[in-house]
Amino acid sequence: MIFWRYRCILLLGFLIVMNRGLVSAESPSLEEVLPGLRDRAIVMDIATRIVEQNQQVVWNSEDSRVTISGRPVGIKLVGDNIVVAVQFTPYLRSRGNSILVAQGQVWIEVPSQGMSYHTSIQTIPVEFGETISFFPLGSSDSREDAQIEIQLMLHPYNSRSSEVRRGNPSPR
After folding, report:
1. What is the pLDDT of residue 22?
2. CA quadruple 51, 148, 17, 118: dihedral positive or negative?
3. For the sheet containing 57-68, what is the strand order?
4. CB atoms within 10 A of CB 134
5. pLDDT (tens digit, 9 = 90+) per residue, 96-136?
6. Each residue of 23-59: pLDDT tens digit?
7. How far is CA 81 from CA 9, 40, 51, 107, 113, in A?
């Protein structure tokens, strides 16, 4: 199992492609597209990384996406023999009890065994400014396993968010 996971992550690291279709530097600002949604808009900061057995980060990517409550944000990672597709859907309520639904799908081609498919869904309580970690291949307490980690942080859309979307991110 450890060898299988390490091999999949290693191959994924060589051919990573991050789907950034929802937010681009040329896209119009939220105010220009839907001025009534500005107060309900949410910014999802996403940090994705691949960590080897020695806890060394071999690949990472950071992105920010704008969404609204109930609308999913998708991430797709593609490698030689693995595809990871994840959707994060925030459901924010004014009285608290906000949640983030994380849906993951993993397709892995295992040599001499064929294609393997795994799916997961998690409902995670969330607050603005809180860091959420999601592990599409499952989490492991062992430092000997390589893994893919996606960290998310939600915050309300504001002028800082507008600068991030235009390609001028402030340091984190």
Report:
1. 37
2. positive
3. 57-68, 41-51, 147-156, 131-134
4. 21
5. 778 999 999 999 998 889 999 999 999 999 999 999 999 98
6. 334 445 555 656 667 678 899 999 999 888 778 888 8
7. 10, 39, 18, 8, 12
Q: What is the pLDDT of residues 152-172, one digit of tens each?
A: 999 988 744 444 444 444 443
Under a CB-based contact definition with an 8 Å cutoff, are residues 130 and 152 in contact? no
Strand extents, DSSP E, the chain: 41-51, 57-68, 73-78, 82-91, 99-110, 114-125, 131-134, 147-156
The H or E element containing residue 159 is helix 159-165
Question: How far is 6 from 52, CA to CA, in rounded Å?
Answer: 8
* Longest Cα–Cα distance in the chain: 54
Bridge partners, residue 67, by sequence: 42
Taking the mean position of all CA atoms in its chain, how far away is CA 32?
A: 26
Q: For residue 117, what are the CA distances in angstroms to 12, 64, 110, 123?
A: 16, 28, 10, 21
- Cα distance between residue 9 and residue 1, in whole Å: 12
pTM of the model: 0.71
Return the SS3 of 11.
Answer: helix
